[in-house]
Amino acid sequence: MGSVLPEAPSCLVLDVRLPGQSGLDFQKEVATQDMRLPIIFITAYGDIPMTVQAMKRGAVEFLAKPFRDQDLLDAVNLGLARDRLRREQDHALVALRKRLDTLTPRERVILFEVTKGRLNKQIADDMGIKEATVKVHRSNMMRKVNAASVADLCRLVDKLKLPQE
User: Fold this and answer.
1) Most buried residue, 61, 99, 140, 161, by most Cβ within 10 Å?
2) Total tally of structural domains belonging to the chain
3) How many helices (H) and strands (E) does the chain have?
4) Whole-prediction pTM value?
5) Three-state SS for 15?
């Protein structure tokens, strides 16, 4: 395969019967390359097991020929909307990772302690520092990662699937 995806929302319309390789096999290959591209299948030869297989692998739609033009347009619009949302989420995660990378090692430790539900006093005792110092680092950390609350902070850590350090 080896193609580069465009930097715009995209989707792929595939016939189940392709020369040399089935559309379902191509879908599997796309998935192994982590392209995360929405796929719409069209076919005159589909059956229920084939449809189920395609949908389980993430196909947006499975249209049997003959289909209305509007059905294909609706499917393409849905595929583009899904890809647009995925791209926005990916960009937000990249921005969040960059913000996390601005943390000092001590702020990073405090981030994980806070997400465990630890109090400033407990963190200070464990780290051998003053509670006021923890408060300063915690405030800086919250500002840097753009979290308004501990709940926000926990959601951010969860989004990034960070291991508890």
Assistant:
1) 61
2) 2
3) 7, 3
4) 0.72
5) strand
Interval 60-101: pLDDT, tens: 999 999 999 999 999 999 999 999 999 999 999 999 999 999
Q: What is the DSSP letter of 79?
A: H
Q: Are 68 and 43 in contact (CB under 8 A)?
A: no
Using the 3D structure, point to which of 34, 63, 88 is the last residue of a domain: 88
Query: For residue range 4-22, what is the model confidence (pLDDT) as tens digits?
Result: 667 889 999 999 888 888 8
Alpha-carbon distance values, 31 to 17, 26, 28, 149 (Å): 18, 9, 5, 37
Q: What are phi and psi of 20, to 5 degrees?
A: 85, -25
139 and 76 in a common domain: no
∠ CA 51-82-100, nearest 5°, is 130
